[in-house]
Amino acid sequence: MNIFRENDVVRLRIGVEANIITGDEVFIPKGAEGTVVIVHGNADQPSAYEVEFFISEQNDFALATVDADLLCKV
């Protein structure tokens, strides 16, 4: 498992649901890149990350809580 820190850029191993800041839900596809904004759990063995994605079609940002094993380095 890779360990990431806040502000690291990561890539999804599978697609996930995310919430746009305004409250709408969107699907973020496998391979999308995002930025870690919060590390959940122990910093040396995180359980999940809060990841921010830019949604170009809507010119907005979305947040998703992603299990640690579903992310990889860019």
Q: Total domains, how many? A: 1
Strand fraction equals over 45%
Please give the CATH class. Answer: Mainly Beta
Flag low-confidence runs.
none
What report would you give on this structure?
The protein has one domain: SH3 type barrels (Roll), CATH 2.30.30. The mean pLDDT is 94. With 74 residues, the protein is mainly β. 0% of the residues lie in helices and 61% in strands. It has strands at 9-12, 16-20, 25-28, 33-42, 45-55, 60-67, 71-73. It has a seven-stranded antiparallel beta sheet, with no helix packed on it. The protein has no helices and seven strands.
Strand-helix topology:
Elements (H helix, E strand, L loop, with lengths): L8 E4 L3 E5 L4 E4 L4 E10 L2 E11 L4 E8 L3 E3 L1
Antiparallel strand pairs: 1-4, 1-7, 2-3, 2-6, 4-5, 5-6
Descriptive keywords:
seven-stranded antiparallel beta sheet, mainly beta, SH3 type barrels, about 70 residues
